[in-house]
Amino acid sequence: xxxxVLPGDGIGPEIVAxxxxxLKAADAKFKLGFEYDYDEVGFASLDKHGTTLRDExxxxxxxxxxxILGTQSHADYPRPEKGGHNISxxxxxxxxxxxxxxxxxxxxxxxSNMKPGKTMDLVIMREATxxxxxxxxMAMGWGEMMPSPDMAISVRKITRxxxxxxxxxxxxxxxxxxxxxTAIHKANSFHMTDGLFLESVRSVAKEFxxxxxxxxxxxxxxxYLVRNPERFDVLVxxxxxxxxxxxxxxxxxxxxxxxxxxxxxxxLCCAQAQHGSAPDIQGQDKANPASMILSVAMLVNWLxxxxxxxxxxxxxKAIDAAVDATLENPSYRTADLGGTLGCKAFSERVAAAL
Length: 354
Ligand code: ATP
Ligand code: MG
Fold this sequence. Notes:
- This protein is of the alpha/beta class.
- The chain has helices at residues 12-30, 43-49, 55-61, 87-94, 134-137, 160-176, 193-205, 218-227, 239-253, 290-307, 310-327, 343-353; strands at residues 2-6, 35-38, 66-69, 99-105, 121-127, 144-148, 151-154, 180-185, 212-217, 234-237, 262-264, 269-272.
- It is built from twelve helices and twelve strands.
- It starts with a strand and ends with a helix.
- Adenosine-5'-triphosphate (ATP) binds at residues 10, 15, 71, 73, 75, 256-257, 275-281, 287-288, 291, 336.
- Adenosine-5'-triphosphate binds at residues 10, 15, 71, 73, 75, 256-257, 275-281, 287-288, 291, 336.
- GO terms for molecular function: 3-isopropylmalate dehydrogenase activity.
- Keywords: Oxidoreductase.
């Protein structure tokens, strides 16, 4: 199996190297047979090729079994005319990686940012190809617009097709967990857009009679995340709501540095940490690579499910368990969790735990 590795910007190269180190250890143990090709995206590519993402990189990506994508300093890129392209957005839209799967859970041995005694174990299923983001609507000629210098308008696209397919992924995941899905929306105000989203989720629910579906207004859901996070298992939401909720959930659960995710399509999957490029700690060996290591574990699990390969699924579980076993020891924690261990040393500990 061939993986495409794109280190990216900021702490990307450090946490990607750490994750690849752990995956190689898992490979040695479970005989997975991964091969790695590297390419540049972000500032490394801009300096060399005048663009943060070459078409060639995007086209080549289709031929791989999986992608490992580092963080990107998208906010610092120049305008698109000057070569600054949003890499994650291009991957999501052009490769149709429509399901951004974002888990957040507390660990009994780690301090969380929640009220004492509260625990969290949830997965946010984020639709990633439409919604408010202007670059997801460009193809239709809609981005943001300014009819006058003093007025700006933002347009959100919601389709039945995209809402139904993300709902289906949420229900499938719920079948493997506690059989509960919560649809997040604001259909009381956005009758058409959120109304269509909610209607789509409800229609897919009929295919999964064993799964209990409820729904919550997005504003109320932030309060519930703080007050009663145990009420959630799988949440499904359109792009923007899910983006905000998942940062809240992962920070509540302990640290953004623990927040792994995948962007999955029907035939291709990309591992990507939930957080940004953390330029404040870049190049200092201070980043917590757990987010990227756990993202890679999710990719390995996704490949395992696609191929019905027990070795891959077991390897994914083992990586997860090795991260937990490492975090359990306070002297093996990175600075974001109050520890002193560096990024590289953390990955060596995880590999040893494997
Ligand atoms: P960007 O512009 O790329 O979004 P950012 O700094 O706005 O970067 P994040 O990268 O998400 O946003 O970081 C928010 C905060 O969380 C920063 O203080 C950062 O150092 C911290 N952080 C994010 N990821 C990690 C990590 N893996 N390990 C340690 N700290 C992290
Ligand atoms: Mg950010």
